[in-house]
Amino acid sequence: YFKQSHTCFMEAVRSFIQQELVPIAASQELSGDYPTKETQQKLGQKGLMVSRMGPGPWLTQAAELDIEIPGRVAPAEFDYFHEMIAHQEVGRLGHPGFIDSCGAGFLISAPAIFHFCSNEVRHQIGGPLLRGDKWSSLAISEPFAGSDVASIKTTAELTPDGKHFIVNGVKKWITEGAYADYFVTAVRTGGAGAKGISLLLIERGEGMETKQIKTTYSTCAGTSLVILSDVKVPIGNLMGKKNDGFRLIMYNFNHERWMIVNSLLGQVRAAITDAFLWAKQRKVFGKALIDQPVIRNKLASSVAAMESVQSYNEALTYDMANSREGPVGTRLAGPIAMLKYQTTRTAWKVADDTVQILGGRGITRTGMGAKVEGLKNFAKYAAVYGGSEEIMADLAIKQALRDFPTRSRL
Mean per-residue pLDDT for 248-256? Predict the structure, then answer.
């Protein structure tokens, strides 16, 4: 799967992370401070945003803006394995709130802006987004509509002159919403159900209020409540066609879920690494912790579980890279859902094992066990956002049944 360009890319990404992100990750995770504009611009200018958006037209535009892809990878050569590496390398920071503050909301919304907004809107905000001058987030979930996207209640009504939508409603658990400039927002423009949903690009402004929500991980990720009160949105900010938003949201979900998988796998690997190092140096009852068979068994089962999921991930990524529709085709919806389900189950198992190995340090937010403590929190977080485990498992099996021979018998 991997070539020399992937090695060069990984080394460049790792160097940037060591120089720019490692020195601030732990302190921002603890303080809960939002990322500075300087950090966002560094991520943009050094190609850490565009490279985590995956293959797409934004790569060519980035080159025109003098944004260099790490490792000097040419846009035509860039594939989903490069993107996988970027997500996992950032994930290895091991501080989940900080990791998500480096673009989790941006990365699941900016591609939709490039795919579905008008040429005029893309020309206006595409460059500032890629450079990190502006930030975006995805506003789908609501207090009473999470995985059940078709039940959203936020409304968008056309003004009498047909030039604007007036948007009213509430969005909840919006990652990076506290400091985003633009919101890719699901709204109801028609009747009940999926066929009455549209997507709007809403710029922060009059009538919009965002409030920080305190969740399991750090507030630096800006997880927010977004309150929309008579927000006036130009008709030109409609993404795609009116009442066709549900299809666009589903189009976006596959890549989002795959992205969550790879960020989580990076954090899993970081936790196992720290647990292994700790087990070698910690002395208990007169000998190293790793000399205890039960500890070696925990490490072995965790490593085996992680590498099994990584193999599954690589095979699916190869499929994404070589399929005509990439990750957005309906054929891969079930396999990607199953991958997310298995990854979050594995992360929960690894979190359990590594916390036990680290002991008190594994439940302490600072010091040697911080990455293990972070995984303990984020494993459940990842099992919920982007589609809960139960929804993922059900989607995978229902899709398999759709093509299952009706006359098959045991």
Answer: 90
Pairing outcome for strands 197-203 and 238-239: antiparallel
Any residues with CB less than 8 A from the CB of 90 and at least 6 apart, and which?
13, 17, 21, 48, 52, 99, 102, 263, 266
Of 340, 263, 301, give the one whose Cα is nearest residue 93. Answer: 263
Sole residue written with tokens 């997500």: 87
As a whole number of angstroms, the distance between CA 221 and CA 102 comes to 8
> In the prediction, which pLDDT does 195 show?
95
pTM: 0.95
Report which residue type is found at 250.
Answer: M
Beta strands in 264-366 (DSSP E): 283-284, 287-288
pLDDT at 403: 85
Whole-Å CA distances, 35 to 26, 32, 43, 64, 130: 13, 9, 11, 26, 16
**Confidence (pLDDT) at 147:** 78
Question: Does 329 score more than 80 pLDDT?
Answer: no
Buried-state track 313-331, b at ≥16 Cβ within 10 A, e below 16: beebbebbbeeeebbbeee
Q: What are phi and psi of 155, to 5 degrees?
A: -110, 155
- Distance (Å, rounded) from C-alpha 331 to C-alpha 402? 11
| pLDDT at site 330 | 82
Q: Is 406 strand, coil or helix? A: coil
- Residue 293 binned pLDDT confidence (cut-offs 50, 70, 90): very high
